Amino acid sequence: MAGRVIVVGSVNIDFVVTVERLPAAGETVTGGRFSRHHGGKGGNQAVAAARLGAPTIFIGAVGSDPFGEDVRAALVADQVDVGNLVTIAGEATGLAFILVDAAGENSIAVASGANAALTPHLVEAALRRVEPGAGDVVLVGHEIPTATAVAALRAGRTGGATTIFNPAPAAGLSGETLEAADIVTPNGGELALLSGTDGPADVAARALLASAPGIRAVLVSLGAGGARLIARDTDADTVVAAEPVAVVDTVGAGDALNGALAAGLAAGQDLEAAARRAVLAAGLAVTRAGAREGMPTLAELDARLAR
Asked: Choosing from 81, 136, 249, 255, which is the catalytic residue?
């Protein structure tokens, strides 16, 4: 029987302006196109996992404003269990303001709102209700307070679940946080910050593994370069190539990768197989606009794999 994906993280409303190029500091770029989307790394990752067929639970917080109900309804529409999505009185729902250029690159500013008010106590209580266990995957992001992320990872590991930590953003993290994660999924910049080295991905990943003995593996996402998988119990450095695609919007690519990785592991795939499907899912996600709109379905992913 397949395990569950339990996502602990942020959820936002995204306000997106697509422009020809990203402005420099102090510069105004006109002629943009506006759109509104549902986002937040945690919410995106939950949707990514659910669309790939994983029974998915989201643990997070929204504010006591109309945006909060919009967030809840959007997750339910994607078959995500929101029974542990709390509403925090007096807080605003998280909002993100995103600029996307003609090449699909982006610049993002986030007003965290209720995400920053998600406490360890709230998350621990939610995880006691959910009871993560063997076969489940607890996927935790860092757009929530560090202490809350630590509490979620520890509770997941104590219950016997596989724990994944997506260290985005990576600033302010400690070895204590990383110790509670079985798998860490940084991008290249985050890996350099966490490991203290800006060397090649395999060297930096080995340095990170050496500094945090609790980590089982590091999956480094490298955009168009695919990913590198470095595991503690083997000397192998697995290069996971990405297929060439026409990039429309890179927002949500990392979330697609993390959600797909969690879904694959919950379905019983080994880490390398899950990583390969995750890279493919991320590649499909960037071919469409919107962080969640681009998330592939299980049928789309299987069709690409069958080619």
From this structure: 255
